[in-house]
């Protein structure tokens, strides 16, 4: 069964290893020399370690480039045509709607006059017939 850890290096002693001491006792070691003061840390932010650059994309064939460019041009043309058509058709459609409303009102008024005239004639005929 693997623990997922790498084995320790060969030069590091393990707890189960027996270490032999020299027979002679050496004089007490001299105190260690004082460590030099640490250098002041720079206040500038250090950039993170660089990561490897992503692999460049595979080279496109001429057909792929042409297809991609045609798709981009088509999107731009669609947008430009849409904007221009809206600008050109807005006043034309507004005039057409106004004309349509005027004509509809005229027709409705004429139809309403005819209906009222028939109703009045019918009612008058009933009164005369009595």
What do these coordinates show?
By secondary structure, this protein is an all-alpha fold. It is built from one helix and no strands. The longest helix has 68 residues, at 62-129. It is elongated, with a radius of gyration of 49 Å. The termini are far apart. The model has no long low-confidence stretch (mean pLDDT 80).
Fill in the keyword field for this structure:
130 residues; 1 helix; elongated
Topology readout:
Blueprint: H1 62-129
Percent range for helical residues?
Answer: 40-55%
Largest sheet: none
The total count of strands amounts to: 0
Cα-based radius of gyration, to the nearest Å = 49 Å
Global mean pLDDT: 80
Strand content: under 5%
The string of secondary-structure elements, in order, is H
Low-confidence stretches: none
Please tally the helical runs, counting DSSP H or I stretches of 4 or more residues: 1
Structural class: mainly alpha
Distance between the termini: 117 Å
Shape: elongated
What's the short story on this structure?
By secondary structure, the chain is mainly α.
């Amino acid at each position: 069964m693997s623990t997922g850890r790498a084995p320790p290096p060969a030069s590091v002693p393990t707890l189960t290893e027996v270490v032999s001491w020299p027979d002679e006792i050496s004089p007490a070691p001299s105190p260690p020399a004082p460590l030099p003061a640490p250098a002041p840390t720079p206040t500038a932010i250090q950039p993170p370690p660089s990561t490897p650059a992503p692999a460049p994309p595979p080279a496109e064939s001429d057909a792929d480039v042409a297809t991609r460019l045609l798709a981009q041009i088509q999107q731009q043309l669609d947008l430009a045509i849409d904007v221009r058509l809206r600008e050109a058709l807005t006043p034309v459609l507004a005039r057409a709607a106004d004309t349509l409303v005027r004509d509809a009102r005229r027709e409705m008024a004429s139809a309403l006059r005819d209906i009222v005239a028939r109703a009045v004639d019918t009612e008058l005929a009933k009164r005369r017939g009595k």
